[in-house]
Amino acid sequence: MGCAGSTPTKGDGNVKKIRKPKPWKHPQPITKSQLVQMREEFWDTAPHYGGRKEIWDALRAAAEADLTLAQVIVDSAAVIVQSADLTVCYDERGAKYELPKYVLSEPTNLIRES
């Protein structure tokens, strides 16, 4: 049952809708392959900074998916989104997960390789 004032849970109101990060610029122009390498290094080392591996895996999948699928992934993994662009998230145990913008989107000064 529940309290007279309770409503069926459809999330606890804390659910933030994910959005694309604001455009950003890397300190120096980088190529797509350099960006991919930076992302790989981040995802390889991220679990060593704390938090649960399955949450890191869910965040990676969300970061690499379109917005609709990313929303489903973070909701399914019970990730608490602090910043709508996914740069700051928490798991249900309160562990903090910080994602750099370069794993979420491309910089405006990306060098297009031919």
Automatic annotation (TrEMBL):
Organism this protein belongs to: Hibiscus trionum
PANTHER family xrefs: UBIQUITIN DOMAIN CONTAINING 1 PROTEIN-RELATED (PTHR13609)
Entry protein name: DC-UbP/UBTD2 N-terminal domain-containing protein
Region called Disordered, residue ranges: 1-29
Comp. bias intervals (Basic residues): 16-25
Family matches, as Gene3D superfamilies: Ub domain-containing protein, DC-UbP/UBTD2, N-terminal domain
Domain DC-UbP/UBTD2 N-terminal, residue spans: 16-113
Domain of life according to the entry: Eukaryota
Coiled coil spans: none
Name of one Pfam family that matches: UBD
